[in-house]
From TrEMBL:
Coiled coil: none annotated. Keywords: Flavoprotein, FMN, Oxidoreductase. It holds the Pfam family Pyridox_oxase_2. It is an enzyme of class 1 (oxidoreductase). PANTHER family: PYRIDOXINE-5-PHOSPHATE OXIDASE (PTHR10851), PYRIDOXINE_PYRIDOXAMINE 5'-PHOSPHATE OXIDASE 2 (PTHR10851:SF3). Residues 1-44 form the Pyridoxamine 5'-phosphate oxidase Alr4036 family FMN-binding domain. It comes from the Eukaryota. One of its GO terms (biological process) is pyridoxine biosynthetic process. This is pyridoxal 5'-phosphate synthase.
């Protein structure tokens, strides 16, 4: 699983609510390897009723730097910039306080990994299927690049 911190007020939250499937891709230039991960995205915001998920959200909040946490007190992302406070005025945040409402944790849970090695001309697809509660069985298949 991949954890992503984001702002609940951003457009991507509404997009994910309409379609919980996503992809993440990495390409490593030195090794000529590409990883494409496909999976589902779970949104954990302040309104979530699952205590374990809220615990994960809080842990992610406190793992973030104070400077990063301050971003969630800024004006809503993607809206026109309007001066609502004195630019010299610092936004205050108690470092011991839990997550603010705008803080959201996304959990990306891959169910397929497409691995491509351009140097060796090798490609593998790893696919998962459920294997008990919160467990997955992964299978691989070598395919043409």
């Amino acid at each position: 699983m991949i954890q992503i911190n984001t702002d609940c007020r951003s457009v991507k939250i509404e997009e994910i609510q309409h379609c919980r499937f996503g992809e993440v891709c990495w390409y490593f230039t030195e090794s000529w390897e590409q990883f494409r991960l496909k999976g589902t995205i779970d949104i954990i915001d302040a309104t979530n009723s699952d205590a374990l998920k809220l615990q994960k959200r809080e842990k992610a909040w406190f793992a973030s730097s104070l400077k990063s946490r301050l971003q969630y007190l800024a004006p809503t992302p993607s809206l026109p910039a309007i001066a609502i406070h004195d630019p010299g005025e610092e936004i205050q945040l108690d470092p011991s306080e839990g997550p603010v409402d705008a803080f959201c944790l996304l959990i990306f849970d891959p169910d397929q990994v497409d691995y491509l090695n351009l140097r060796s001309n090798e490609r593998l697809i790893f696919t998962s299927k459920p294997n008990g509660p919160s467990c997955k069985l992964w299978m691989s298949q070598k395919i043409n690049p």
